[in-house]
């Protein structure tokens, strides 16, 4: 069976992700206690259900410690298991809770029975949740939704469920330093010192996927040298991540605006590694 476990920080978009996979034909279950995961999968297998998506988060906080072992057991039984973890910056989460006027799920468990002055703040609840879910995040494919529209999140979730079940998926992601470093990055490379097409009025409205920008950057010796260094670094260390049983590795490339240099570098690296690895591409600042 194809199994997608969806977890993450409250307010980061788990309901959006669950709706996407439900539309894709997955049998979906929200807020399943992890102790019931094996029983549910056995039942769905007997019923001939080919694909299931299960949302598990801090609403079952006391039951999460055994989840990594449950994932390993399911894989050993021959099931194809992916873990998707959604996160966002604390600032973004606070703004979202403020807009919806909803309380944080942990506030019901961590202090509503206390005196008002002793209750945890929203920021403290978010930090507590990060700590509770840290064991799941390290084995998951992480998406930072801080600056994502709902439509872009839907597209990225579709990419995750469409890739094959390989030992490791290599993700290349472009971003803008002026917005901030994405939380989902395992490695971050800064290409802001490279020649910038932004200063050419003809190239400014284009992106690193457009041929004029590609030709401009190809002609810059520094760009090719940076590409070679990053490519060699990844090639050297990728086998070690595979031996460590990592399922996902995200390499983030950043420039000032996330439009030209970082996009070009991500596309070039992805094209190189696609010949031997399962590769996904994300551009945070492009539509």
TrEMBL record:
Q: Does the keyword Ribonucleoprotein apply?
A: no
Residues engaged in binding ATP: 8-15
The residue ranges of the RapZ C-terminal domain are 169-286
Keyword Aminoacyl-tRNA synthetase among UniProt keywords? no
Name the domain of life: Bacteria
InterPro entries, sorted: P-loop_NTPase, RapZ-like, RapZ-like_N, RapZ_C
> Which SUPFAM superfamilies does its entry note?
P-loop containing nucleoside triphosphate hydrolases (SSF52540)
Q: Identify the NCBIfam families for this entry.
A: PRK05416.1
This one is known as RNase adapter RapZ
Question: Which species is this UniProt entry from?
Answer: Undibacterium umbellatum
């Amino acid at each position: 069976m194809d199994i997608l476990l969806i977890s993450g920080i409250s307010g980061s978009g788990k309901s959006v992700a669950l709706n996407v996979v439900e539309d894709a034909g997955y049998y979906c279950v929200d807020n399943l206690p992890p102790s019931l995961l094996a029983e549910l999968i056995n039942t769905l297998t007997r019923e001939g259900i080919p694909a299931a998506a299960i949302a598990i988060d801090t609403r079952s906080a006391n039951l999460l410690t055994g989840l990594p072992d449950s994932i390993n057991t399911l894989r050993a039984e021959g099931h194809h298991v992916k873990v998707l973890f959604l996160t966002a910056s604390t600032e973004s989460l606070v703004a979202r809770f403020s807009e919806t006027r909803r309380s944080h799920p942990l506030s019901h468990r961590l202090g509503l029975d206390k005196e008002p002055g002793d209750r945890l703040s929203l920021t403290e609840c978010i930090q507590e949740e990060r700590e509770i879910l840290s064991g799941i995040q390290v084995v998951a494919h992480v998406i930072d939704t801080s600056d994502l529209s709902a439509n872009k999140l839907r597209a990225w979730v579709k990419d995750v469920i469409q890739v094959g079940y390989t030992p490791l998926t290599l993700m290349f992601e472009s971003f803008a330093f002026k917005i901030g470093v994405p939380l989902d990055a395992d490695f971050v490379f800064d290409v802001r010192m490279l020649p910038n097409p932004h200063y050419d009025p003809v190239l400014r409205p284009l992106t690193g996927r457009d041929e004029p920008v590609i030709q401009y950057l190809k002609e810059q010796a520094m760009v090719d040298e940076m590409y070679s260094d990053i490519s060699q670094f990844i090639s050297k260390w990728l086998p070690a991540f595979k031996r460590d049983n990592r399922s996902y590795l995200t390499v983030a490339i950043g420039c000032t605006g996330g439009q030209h240099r970082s996009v070009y570098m991500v596309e070039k690296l992805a094209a190189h590694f696609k010949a031997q690895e399962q590769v996904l591409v994300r551009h945070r600042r492009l539509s």
